[in-house]
């Protein structure tokens, strides 16, 4: 299957025209679609979120919940869908106990996405009907330690709906190859951290930097005495960032502590100044053996949804920084609330689902995903001779071996032929399948004549 074309002018117009349609998520409590005989479902009464603000509609410049026609809704209409990202840092040593009941609930309600459980809390992104997603969030917050989830809501446009509805007969939210999300699948993983940082001493449950509302962000980062730091990785920053922001040039969040030590000369110093992306930053950094305190700069940091800034700001405070600020709700909240005419954001924001990127108003961006390296690629990147759909892009072409590329081509051929990786046998060898079928036949009782 070929990649979907860049976002068209008509699609942008349709998105803008639909923005006024939704008054509130609470008013979109829909009856669930008629279940398939193969997928039993229960009707569950929706309970209000406890100690957390209810999911609400986006502001007038946001995206709409209006849906396109498809299976599963009344008179052929598909149910409205919403994407919700959430996290909560908490003391959660028995996190593994939540995995199975949470996964079962998501599957029962046909909510898709991914959730990470760790001793330090929960982090996830889910997609489903407003009623179903809100019920999952209610269930999570029945544990007092997880009450007060930080939630970012992104509605799904009619154009997004048109991509994937009708791909399966047993689910009202079946996936297609270029669908923004995998509507039929949820992953609940157990990990050491809900966001990998590599320093167990950093504890956002004890202290973090000061939250700055999106409406106050422009004033803070426009101050020349403020060092603005993008906490994300290189491939994310490459497609968009705030004006004046410093790029740490990290390939993973685990590299951020070392960058801070080196950039601000916290380990050792023989200079009172350092260069931040060509700009001289006066730090007053002195030798660690000196009795004088370090004069570290005011820092304003941001990330996609806010979770990485929780750890990064806690780390900076532990290192002796006095003024540490971070954007509440991250880039996504800023793009949702701040009109483009007033915005200091440049480019698009990378997101961790099949939308790949979003723009102001949380409209889907123009970038696609390279399935070789999972990095965003632009229309210009796809004109490069190093671009091969499903295989490689200009950013990974030289690092992938020919063997890896050939395996990727084989996977892509399987998907084009069968619609799933591996075809009907899901990639298992025909010989093993025949042997398995033979064993099954031997176990069947013989019929008498």
UniProtKB/TrEMBL annotation:
| Signal peptide extent | none
Q: Which InterPro entries does the record cross-reference, listed alphabetically?
A: Rhodanese-like_dom, Rhodanese-like_dom_sf, TrhO, TRHO_N
Composition skew (Basic and acidic residues), residue ranges:
425-449
- SUPFAM superfamilies under this entry? Rhodanese/Cell cycle control phosphatase
Q: Which residues form the Rhodanese domain?
A: 222-343
Tree of life domain: Eukaryota
Question: Region (Disordered) spans which residues?
Answer: 159-178, 271-290, 407-449
- A Pfam family assignment: UPF0176_N
Q: What HAMAP family does the entry give? A: TrhO (MF_00469)
Name of the protein in its database record? Rhodanese domain-containing protein
- Tell me which species this is from: Triticum aestivum (Wheat)
Q: What is the lineage of its organism?
A: Eukaryota, Viridiplantae, Streptophyta, Embryophyta, Tracheophyta
